[in-house]
Amino acid sequence: MSTVQIPNLIAGEEAVGDGFERYNPADPAELVAVAPASGAEAVDAAVTAAAEAQPGWAALPAPARGAILLDAAEILRGRHAARDLVREEGKTLTEARGEVRRAIDVLRFFGAEGWRLGGQVLPSSLPDTMVHTRREPVGVVGLITPWNFPIAIPAWKLAPALIGGNAVVLKPAELTPLSARHLTEALVQAGLPAGVLSVVHGSGAVVGEALVRDPRVAAVSFTGSTQVGMRIERAVQERRGRVQVEMGGKNALVVLDDADVEQAARIAAAGGFGLTGQACTASSRVICTPGVHDDFVAALAKEAARYRPGNGLADGTLMGPVVSEQQLGTITAAIERATAEGATVAAGGEAPEGLMLAPTVLSGLSQENTAAREEIFGPVVAVLSAADLDDAINLVNDSRYGLAAGICTRSLAAAQRFAAAARVGVVKVNRPTTGLDLNVPFGGVGDSSSNTFREQGAVAVDFYTWSKSVYLGWEG
Ligand code: NAD
């Protein structure tokens, strides 16, 4: 398979460059993509082009903007991007097809929103007067995205930003320029005017920082690590820009005594080892009540054996490699630290082959173990014990994060109590913590999210627009 030179896209012009080389994580000899290591001047040019193009784009009727998103969905469907996504990011072909499908559906959803974008009509206290609200675009928007969903996350930010009438500068993750390219090229081919979308590749420290600090960028939407997200949040707030940061998680799955243990283990494995555990909503800790704990650890260890890592393009692979050497080093160091702090390795523990890391089950952890508190972002599930549902809820909420949480139980009352008490943005009952519907608001609380605006669903447009109230009077 051939290497692709991924260009920057600025003011409708493409320019290739060297700097970032991306190799297939399942086959390190295969160079998949080369992208430029741009400087701050590229961001400056992209923001200038965006500021020039934005008023014309906003002046187009929303259904006409939507038509471009709908056409882009069809073009993306015809590109068969899933195999490239596997070669670049490492997930399995089934997972990659699901992600590409998600990006297509997101474009369709927000394309159709072009027919629905509107405000409210409200009664006025004055005679012969009508009040209505308008949604105004924020202007130029900066989007900074991670590598773990390299098509779907840019799509779920770009689509609401564009339908809202904004011009966008996208900075994709360094590790996944090709996947982002499939999406952005589809938008350009669908007829997006020059300058409405620019793409600048490069490092977070240079390109990301320049985008965050540019005062012409009215709003920044970021998805990535908590450490970087908090820094971006502060920087944008300092200059009174609008900011949305969606960050890490330490998502808990509670398994109660009344749960079906085999089913709970399948749910935990799908949420913990699926996507190689590299999902912000991954079930990275499981909290069991005493009657089910030992059976659950044994059942999860059995499930782990099914998720033997392999090339995502091979038939039957349930779990792909870890994304990079650096990520592998972080994960193996976290496992070592967990055992040094008292955890037992109940499954996994073998030395990785290349970037193929066996799924790991840790048990016997205290709540103070670092593996019970900090995100690992790999196929590692830590199993803890709780005395009962109340104790489990306390452990779930004793976390700096608050993204997703799940519970396995046959009791509707327990499920409802849990749904009300868990301090997280997403609750799943008898379902993996991973996997979201695109029409449902998504985000977290605590150190997982800025927790102001939600992504996904129709409400996602709120971040990219502001509300204006118009009083319309006439003489009767
Ligand atoms: P990361 O924070 O390292 O990088 C994310 C993006 O930010 C990249 O494009 C990177 O280049 C850029 N960046 C890095 N430093 C920057 C800086 N100083 N200024 C501006 N931009 C900068 O995260 P990652 O490793 O790519 O992604 C993994 C993380 O993303 C995990 O913590 C995961 O939980 C999180 N994530 C969260 C969600 C969510 O919706 N909450 C979804 C997916 C991933």
Protein model, in words:
- The structure is a single chain.
- The protein is an alpha/beta fold and 476 residues long.
- It has two domains: 4-247 and 449-472, Aldehyde Dehydrogenase, Chain A, domain 1, CATH 3.40.605; 251-429, Aldehyde Dehydrogenase, Chain A, domain 2, CATH 3.40.309.10.
- It is built from 14 helices and 20 strands.
- The protein has helices spanning 40-59, 62-79, 82-89, 93-113, 152-163, 177-189, 204-213, 226-238, 261-273, 293-306, 325-340, 370-373, 389-397, 412-421, and strands at residues 4-5, 8-10, 13-15, 19-24, 27-36, 121-123, 129-137, 140-144, 167-171, 197-199, 219-223, 242-246, 251-255, 283-288, 344-347, 360-363, 380-385, 404-408, 426-429, 465-473.
- Strands 15-16-17-14-13-18-19 form a seven-stranded mixed β-sheet, with helices on both faces. A five-stranded parallel β-sheet has the order 10-9-8-11-12, sandwiched between helices. A three-stranded mixed β-sheet has the order 1-5-4, covered by helices on one side.
- It is globular and about 75 Å long.
- The chain binds nicotinamide-adenine-dinucleotide.
- Nicotinamide-adenine-dinucleotide binds next to helix 7 and helix 8.
